Structure formats: C-alpha cells, structure tokens
Fold this sequence. Notes:
The protein is an alpha/beta fold and 263 residues long. It is built from 11 helices and 8 strands. Strands 1-2-3-4-5-6-7-8 form an 8-stranded parallel beta barrel, surrounded by 8 helices. The protein is globular.
Amino acid sequence: MKKITIKDIKSLKKGNKKFTVLTAYDFSFARVLNDTKIDIILVGDSLGNVIQGNKNTIPVTMEEMCYHTKLVAKAASHSLVMSDMPFMSYKTLDDALINATKLMQSGAEIIKIEGGKWVEKIIKELSVRGIPTCCHLGLTPQYIHKLGSYGVRGKGQDEANTIKSDSMILEKAGADFFLLECVPTLLGEEITKALEVPVIGIGAGGKTDGQVLVTHDILGLSELTPKFTKNFLTDANSIKEAIELYKEAVLSGKFPSSENCFK
Ligand code: KIV
C-alpha cells in the first residue's frame, strides 16, 4: 500500500477533495483504520479519556504518547501518523524541540499542538528542523481549566477574529495542517477558505477539508455521544464496516449533517 504523505494531503485540498482522519491508540485499531485507507491516524491525547478513563487530557504524559505512537506506527503502512504533544510538553521552545523529537522517533510523521499565536515560534523552529506540525485551534481541551467547559468557541466576533488571525500567523510560521474543534460552521468555512494548508474539522461544519472523529465515539464505546459525532456501528455489522461507513459519509459530504454542526 502506498504511504500517504503530507504532500498528498495538501494535494487533496488543492484538488478540492475531502479526506478522513480517525483516532487510534493501539496496533489493532490502527490496523483496521489503515486497511480501510483512512488518510490520517491521530494518536490523540484523547487517550486520556477513552483509554485511561480520566476526566480530561491533562494527566497524559510524553512517555504515554510515545508508547501509543509506537503501537500505532507499526500498523500504519498506508495512513499518515499524527501524534499529539500532551499538556505542558511544549511549555518552552526547548521542551517543544525535545518532545517533538521523541514523538517523531516513536513513529509520528506530524505532531499536533494546541494553542494560538503564542506557539508561533515553536511552529517556526520545528518547521525549519523538518518536523511537520498541525495547529489545533477553537476548542482546545488542554485548556479546560481556563475555559471551564467544552463548549463551542468563536461564537462571538472577537473570539472568531482571534481564531482567524491566529491561524494566519501560524500558517505563515510554517504549520502544515490545522485542526479546528467546535466552532460555528461559518467560521470553519471562512478559515478553510482563507488558509492554503488543509484544515481538519471536528464539530467545525461540513466545509473543512478533512473530518476527524474519535474512533471510540463512532463505535458507541464512549459514555457520551457529543453532538458533533455519530455512532456508525448502529448501521454496520463490524468495526471495519462502521469505519467504511464513516469514510463514505465524509467523502460524499453526508457527514457532518446539520445536526452535528454548530451555528
Ligand atoms: O486528542 C484527540 O483525539 C483530538 C481530537 C478530539 C481531534 O485532538
């Protein structure tokens, strides 16, 4: 199977084609996603919730991210592997360089970082050293204790403007992808149109270039089903079939529907 590269994902955006992203934290789930030709496997720090049973992603450590990245990378002969930089692993530029190196040496092919324009220097320095980055904007779960809830971000004009201008600054700094979480559909669309690099959405409407969901959510394994997700196993006979249904729904534009989006 041909390995997907960052360049391939950028070409999909240029060709106006959608792409799919799902989370995995171990070899077996990664193998199913890889065999279903999901474009990107995200080793998300959501493993803190779905694997470890924590209330949030704050307890996830660098060692744990590297461990799960190694397991996923073994199966990813096709899909691109993107791994999260966990809470406080990039609090300084030195930390960011050291810890992003660890993730890449564990098998990540791009790293994801939560945060606005304050991560500009980090993105620049990683980029010139050959470490691709995805900037996570909108709802940033590592900020839960500052935010107070997992609600929609960018509903007000000021916050929407900040998210937009942060995305421009970070694209200029060298970000390869963006991930927009829980923002109004219109804002998701505006940012996707304004940026040259691909934008992955989760609860960001149907106009982003790619869509990501937490695999455990689409298989009905999570305690709650947030509005922006959907259980695809209810219409399938196997996990693989559920993943295929998700892929088909994203590529055909059927998912997300208006009931999965925010105004
Ligand atoms: O950690 C994760 O799984 C994520 C998704 C919610 C996008 O960042």
